């Protein structure tokens, strides 16, 4: 179980690093908003894999709540893009 | 549910989900503007994350046995990921267009550049 979860964590870490490079090199704000959302979900996936690795009992609750809250970041970023207008 | 079955299921779901997330991270480099990036973001939240939720559920099933509440939580998490994330992506796409982010110059047909036929553009100069 640990080996499998380790492989997933390495793949997700690579996804986060690629996303960070994309955010640094992106010119327009819209791309930064989208890639930061991708980094958010990759981080949630890594937290899930960590929960599985330490065999904690709240893994499902973490993913459940994080995917519900994920929309707030995206809505906030889109509101920032339009400078506060709807 | 014995150990090897749980490990292989968590592995299948987890690695596939992680590869989907990595794939959409790589796809962010191949497309050239914000709108297409929102487009290639959907495999990550539409299929990548639900697979990771499935991996978490299989692990929960393995460690804590079957319980209706965790099954309900997993199903609601997957539905939430698909519905809520697409609503968020639509909102982000709408604000990306409204805030005038640059569209890739080779986009053709670029329906955002010109109003559709038959629509009188009220504030166009020659109108």
- What integer is the average pLDDT of chain A? 89
Strand content of chain A: under 5%
Order of helices and strands of chain B: HHH
Helix content range of chain B: over 70%
Tell me the major beta sheet of chain A.
Answer: none
| Proportion of beta-strand residues of chain B | under 5%
Low-confidence runs of at least 5 consecutive residues of chain B? none
Number of strands of chain B: 0
Radius of gyration of chain B: 21 Å
Separation, N- and C-terminal Cα atoms of chain A:
46 Å
> For the residues shown, what is the average pLDDT of chain B?
86
Note poorly predicted spans of chain A: none
Q: Helical region count of chain B?
A: 3
Task: Give Rg of chain A in angstroms.
Answer: 15 Å
How far apart lie the N and C ends of chain B?
71 Å
Shape of chain B: elongated
SSE run of chain A: HHH
Description:
The complex is a heterodimer of chains A (about 90) and B (about 130). Chain A contains three helices and no strands. Chain A is mainly alpha-helical and about 90 residues long. The mean pLDDT of chain A is about 90. Chain B is mainly alpha-helical. Chain B has three helices and no strands. Chain B has helices at about 5-30, 35-65, 70-100. Chain B is elongated, with a radius of gyration of 21 Å. The N and C termini of chain B lie far apart (about 70 Å).
């Amino acid at each position: 179980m640990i080996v499998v979860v380790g492989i997933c964590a390495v793949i997700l870490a690579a996804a986060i690093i690629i996303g960070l490079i994309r955010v640094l090199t992106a010119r327009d704000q819209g791309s930064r908003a989208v890639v930061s959302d991708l980094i958010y979900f990759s981080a949630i996936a890594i937290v899930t894999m960590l929960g599985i690795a330490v065999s904690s009992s709240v893994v499902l609750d973490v993913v459940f709540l994080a995917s519900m809250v994920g929309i707030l970041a995206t809505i906030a970023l889109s509101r920032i893009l339009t400078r506060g207008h709807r | 549910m014995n150990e090897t079955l749980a490990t292989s299921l968590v592995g299948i779901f987890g690695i596939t989900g992680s590869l989907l997330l990595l794939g959409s991270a790589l796809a962010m480099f191949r497309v050239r503007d914000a709108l297409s990036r929102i487009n290639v973001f959907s495999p990550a939240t539409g299929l990548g994350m639900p697979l990771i939720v499935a991996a978490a559920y299989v692990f929960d099933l393995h460690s804590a046995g079957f319980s209706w509440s965790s099954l309900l939580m997993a199903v609601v998490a997957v539905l939430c990921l698909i519905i809520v994330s697409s609503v968020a992506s639509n909102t982000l796409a709408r604000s990306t267009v409204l805030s005038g982010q640059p569209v890739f110059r080779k986009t053709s047909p670029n329906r955002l550049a010109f109003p559709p036929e038959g629509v009188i553009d009220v504030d166009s100069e020659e109108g």
